[in-house]
Amino acid sequence: FKLQFQLRNVRERLAKALVEKGILGTERQNFLLFDMTTHPLSNAPEKQRLLRRLQGSVLERDPRRMERRTLALLVLAHSSDLLENVFGGLGDDRYDLAMSRARDLLDVDPELAAAKAGAGGSEMIWAVLAAFNKS
């Protein structure tokens, strides 16, 4: 129960930060018996920029040399079952290549990758992937 509360708190803080940056908006929607705050996308070009950045990092560079923020974005997309959406706008050949490269990267043993990362600062990202893989 405590973990669910903490995750909800993180989700709310992230949504608030994205609203402040102008990427998301805030709306109240009525779902039969209760009102709920939703955060629809209000900055579509920013979403497209992120998608292109992630696609380019996986397709055009060695995924193992990916910068930390992009690696974190890839791990989050994988953990949220959104990788298909990230690479969905690509052609069939590029989609297959992107998915295979992403799978190769995500199938690496996170503990070994964290040990190799050393001073690179991506140990936490690999630890998060290990935690998602165990659940």
TrEMBL record:
InterPro entries membership = GPP34-like, GPP34-like_sf
Recorded topology in the membrane: Peripheral membrane protein
Keywords, comma-separated and alphabetical: Golgi apparatus, Lipid-binding, Membrane
Q: Where is the signal peptide?
A: none
Membrane keyword on record: yes
Quick one: a GO biological-process term for this protein? retrograde vesicle-mediated transport, Golgi to endoplasmic reticulum
| Gene Ontology terms: cellular component | cytosol; Golgi cisterna membrane; Golgi membrane; trans-Golgi network
Give the main location: Golgi
Identify a single GO molecular function assigned to this protein. Answer: phosphatidylinositol-4-phosphate binding
Q: Where in the cell is it found?
A: Golgi apparatus, Golgi stack membrane; Golgi apparatus, trans-Golgi network membrane
Presence of the UniProt keyword Transcription regulation in the record:
no
* Gene3D superfamilies (alphabetical): yeast vps74-n-term truncation variant domain like (1.10.3630.10)
| Tree of life domain | Eukaryota
Q: Which family does it belong to?
A: Belongs to the GOLPH3/VPS74 family.
PANTHER family, A to Z: GOLGI PHOSPHOPROTEIN 3-LIKE, TRANS-GOLGI PROTEIN GMX33
Q: Any idea what this protein is called?
A: GLP3L protein
Organism in which the protein naturally occurs: Pachyramphus minor
